[in-house]
Amino acid sequence: MKERTERIAKIVGEKMQAEAMVVEVEKNNRTRQGVSIKSGDNARAVFYIDDMEKMSEEEVADKIVEVCSKEEMPIFDLTKIANKEFVLEHVIPCMVGRSGNEKFLQNLVHTHFLDLEIVYRVMISDDYSSSFLLRNAMLQDLHISQTELEEKAQHNLIEKDHTKVASITQILSELSGIPIEMVEEMSLPPMYVMTNQNKMFGANSILRKDLLKELSEELGKDLYIFPSSIQEIILVPEDNVTNTMDLKEIVRFGNINTVSAEEKLSDSVYHFNRVTEEIEVMA
After folding, report:
1. Domain boundaries in the chain?
2. Which InterPro entries match (predicted)?
């Protein structure tokens, strides 16, 4: 695979008359290969190509060149985004699983949370389509303490991430166009989806104890939490679950059959206690 990527990088470099090189990037539960293209003194763009195995090397190279020619290439000046002020203003916490991500987490700034890890992502674009993860070396270079980072990230989560809680009936009504009154007649079990307005990295909503408390008080019940993916979590009132092991099997089934490796968060089931406002791993 690396040899193929090197050949593609060479073709792209020749076609664009630019410096192109192979990069390997550790992602959540996965290592990805890509072609990095230099533009200017302080800017680079990375194109991941490991999902283009059915295309020829020439076709992949042409696709990269086509995107660049349309000025769609996500290039950013590092001098403008890799500074303390920008980082603290745009950083948010994101959730990843601890198990199986030891290599991925090795050089990243991270904080323990139950059997998960909080990593810190700096959002370059408002729609979250462009971002980068904070590494230990950058944190040291920018003279940002771990405490300052954690506090600012939590502040941004509350003030900027626009976390929302929606019932499954609301979501089905929006997706199908069926009036919510008709969806409610289906007598679906109470279930709520919690994510942000961009529906990206929304599993960080598990850190919004204020919203978990609000929903649990409204329902008059504690909540079970299970991780749909790194993009969202699902909340179920406690009295609608008779066996937490059954719920864990549902999570496992979803992770195996419907969630990609990069989006998988955890196989665990969590419990929010509305009195103590604590979250714990249940199964």
Report:
1. 2-75, 82-160, 163-281
2. DUF5688 (IPR043743)
